[in-house]
Structures are given as C-alpha cells and as structure tokens.
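User: Sequence in, structure out. Go.
Assistant: Echoing your sequence, followed by the structure tokens.
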Amino acid sequence: MGCTYELSQTAYIKIVLHALKNPSSAVNGILLGRPRTYYIMEILDAMPVSHSASNFYSPFQIALYQTEEQCYHPRQLNVVGYYHANETYDDCKLGPAACKHVDQMFRHSWLSAVLLLDHKKLHHLIKENDGDPAVMLFTCGISRTPCLQAGPEAKDELVLKEPSAHALLADYIASKKWLEIVDFEDHLNDITKDWFNPNLFK
C-alpha cells in the first residue's frame, strides 16, 4: 500500500504563482505539512525560495533552516518535501540542481514529496479550469532516487485537498496575483519583503 499526498489549495496555488511570476527562470521551494495517518501526508503550505539558477543552492539551505525554525512551533508544520518548476515549457525532468535538493529531502525523510510543475498541463488548466493538479509527484525510489508516480503502476498518489482549488487559481491568474508573491531570494534583495507571504490570500 502506498501513500496518498493531499495537496492543499494554498500550497498548490503558491507553487503556480511562483512559477508564473518567473516565467523565464526555474523556481523552487519547500513544502510544509504533517502526516494525518500513516498512509496520508497533508501538504498544507509552500515556501517559495529561489528563482535564479546562479543562486540556486545556498539560499535554499538558509531558507530551509529558517523554515524549520519558524514554522514548526507556531504552526506545528514540518518540512515534508520540495517543489520545482523548470524554465522551459516542455521540460518535465528533474535536473542536477533540483536533484541535490531532492536527495537532501529524501535523507530527511523517505516520505518526502517532490512536486514538479507540468507547464503543459498548467496551460490546459488555465484554459479549461478542470482536471488533475498541474504537478507531477515524485517519491523516494531505490537508493533515494526520485521515482515518478504516474499511471496504473504508481504506488503513491497525489490528490487536491479542496475541489475549489482550480477555480480559485483561475481567479488569481486573471487578477495577476502572481505579481504579489515573494520568495526568499526577493527577501534577500529587500528585507522588507516577507517571503512567508502572510497577506497573499487576504
């Protein structure tokens, strides 16, 4: 029996908005959540980290530390995974830089989720406003290699926690909500910008 990863609309929308704000760059971030049962992992929030390939590694380590320090005690959330969006439309693979972070997540927990944005599916969702989430799920495979969970042979599955997620996402895209999202790299350039994005959905 595999694990079901329940992706909240808050986490899902933040992943998409982060990618839309930086359409010509790869982006990455940290997934927060908690196990609900032994077989169900809730992914409740996403922390946008970086959008610059030249700064991909070091900001992530600092952001990971800050996330662990500031999110566990007040919100009782743990780091449960990593998300990534490639810079090119048809690239659906995890590159070497992303795999470094993936390996770190799998060392932390073999239940960690890795979500890769599918730009083609996102484009379809924007037009049709339905369907499965526009992210692909990777989980820990042999020797901690990321294993894509898709099709009838998948042992793990990804589901959206709220059915309203796509409709809400469409509204945010129409209003260009992506302009408001801040990642950790933005925060390093201007410390007045809060990369925890407390007012993003208010």
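User: And one key feature?
Assistant: Strands lie at 4-7, 27-37, 40-50, 78-85, 113-117, 135-140, 146-148, 157-160.
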